[in-house]
């Protein structure tokens, strides 16, 4: 009588392979750190949005002989104020302590809409999560105060 040896893996061998794969997967997940990657992605979006807002305000001023949108002229030499979302009327925006850049979205010439912070904790419905101010020498500063990972996002022109 001839005996056939069954080929295959034993339970112990399978468990060892699964354990090794689990350890390698854990190391890869820790090395990649998805939470940090998402935070960096949101910060990249904030940089883009801050530059977009600043470019729209600058282009508005260029097209209007150096005159800034009204709300920025009123806010000259003051602390930075929140930028109101598209669609917030000027009275409500001012009452909430914000700045309306609606003139940059009129007829969608400079912006289609004011960009919003990708994940603004505690932002009001009328706030974009970005702040804008003018300095004593007339320079415009747009910032993202809710940047993550200890990054400071601010652009001046």
Q: Can you walk through the features of this model?
A:
By secondary structure, the protein is an alpha+beta fold. The chain has one domain. Helices cover 40% and strands 13% of the residues. The protein is built from 4 helices and 4 strands. The chain has helices at residues 11-32, 34-63, 70-74, 90-95, and strands spanning 81-84, 127-134, 140-144, 153-156. It has a 4-stranded antiparallel beta sheet, with helices on one face. The longest helix has 30 residues, at 34-63. The radius of gyration is 26 Å and the shape is rod-shaped. The mean pLDDT is 87.
Please describe the topology of this protein.
Blueprint: H1 11-32, H2 34-63, H3 70-74, E1 81-84, H4 90-95, E2 127-134, E3 140-144, E4 153-156
Antiparallel strand pairs: 1-2, 2-3, 3-4
